[in-house]
Write a structure and sequence with these properties.
The chain is α+β, with helices and mostly antiparallel strands. It folds into 2 domains: 150 residues, no CATH class; 83 residues, no CATH class. The protein contains 10 helices and 6 strands, in the order ααββαααααββαβααβ. β3 and β4 form a beta hairpin. The longest helix is centred in the middle third of the chain and has 28 residues. The protein starts with a helix and ends in a 7-residue tail after the last strand.
Length: 265
């Protein structure tokens, strides 16, 4: 699934809302002031707000905040399939077969499918955590839409994974990159969490400053258009600007691609 579409979904979760409203902390993890993470990021981005429409600046701040949220939530345990692309692809293809079978069952017996699905979601549809507010007579439409979208998403991911295998790319952190260096040695990114964060933020700034407020495609290289704003990334993360630039330049030379973070919410 495309990076930006996933970012939009993450930005609507309760976990994300709770995280961005946390008080800012220092390197020791101690709260240092009442300023929240959201406030800090938006304050750093203020130089780019001048003469831009509010919805454009909201696009920028949302994608920057989601990137930081994903980096914070990321752990090596998220990388279950990182070293075994074949296993991941096999797992996805199994999911697709199951979803396809259930979709066919709904077509043959829609009433059963609706009851089965709603029963499975009953535990989520509690007064304090309402999942569905479905108008009468639209349950069938919702059910077909949900599984159709899920099936389409699986097909896109499977297609992307097959392409990655052909190009010998490995997925780790928020990046895709070639498994081997030019000399045949295995490629290693020492700090995948930090490098993914720096790559994503630079990617976002380049799109924003070039007024290209979308990056729907997955597995894309760093664009040459727009401004990288290493200075703003450094300010947000409390890093040295030259260090940020060196990290990103090294990743670009490795022919790295952007990918969505493999976090679980």
């Amino acid at each position: 699934m495309a990076v930006e579409k996933i970012n939009q979904s993450i930005a609507q979760t309760q976990q994300y809302f709770n995280w961005v409203d946390k008080p800012l902390a220092n390197e020791c993890g101690c709260e240092i002031r009442h300023e929240t993470i959201r406030d800090h990021v938006r304050d750093c981005l203020k130089p780019l707000k001048t003469e831009r429409k509010n919805d454009e600046w909201e696009w920028l701040s949302r994608n920057v905040l989601v990137t930081l949220f994903c980096a914070d939530q990321y752990t090596p345990e998220n990388e279950r399939f990182a070293g075994n692309a074949a296993e991941r692809l096999k797992n996805l293809e199994k999911q697709l077969k199951v979803i396809s079978k259930f979709t066919n069952l709904i077509k043959k017996d829609p009433d059963f499918g609706i009851r089965f699905f709603l029963h499975a979601c009953l535990s989520l549809n509690s007064p304090d955590k309402v999942l569905f507010h479905i108008p009468e007579g639209q349950h069938d439409l919702l059910l077909k839409s949900v599984f159709s979208n899920y099936e389409s998403s699986l097909k896109r991911v499977i297609s992307m994974d097959r392409e990655s295998q052909k190009r010998m790319l490995i997925s780790s952190g928020g990046l895709h990159y070639c498994q081997f260096n030019a000399d045949g040695t295995k490629a290693v990114i020492q700090d995948i969490k930090l490098d993914s964060t720096l790559f994503h933020l630079t990617y976002i700034f380049r799109h924003f400053t070039a007024n290209r407020l979308d990056f729907w495609g997955n597995s894309k290289r760093m664009p040459r258009f727009g401004r990288p704003h290493y200075d703003l990334t450094a300010k947000i993360l409390d890093k040295d600007t030259d260090s940020v630039k060196k990290h990103v330049t090294r990743l670009v030379k490795k022919d790295v691609y952007i990918s969505h973070w493999p976090i679980s919410l």
